[in-house]
Amino acid sequence: IGEKRATREMISALANALRDDSADVRWSACQALCEVGEKAGTSEVISALLNALQDDSDDVRWIARAALGK
Fold this sequence. Notes:
Blueprint: H1 8-17, H2 23-36, H3 43-52, H4 58-68
Helix pairs in contact: 1-2, 1-3, 2-4, 3-4
């Protein structure tokens, strides 16, 4: 996706996708937010990623940590 192409609406949609029922969707949203970079560093996204650290899926927790830069 890249930081230059990211829009506020897209970033907000990805943050919302972190609450999806599907672990695959949540993982993909985290991965996309990783690719967006610093532009995704809104309070909404950071809060959603912090919540994802408690996800039932090991993979989602792992990629959430990567997205947060841990």
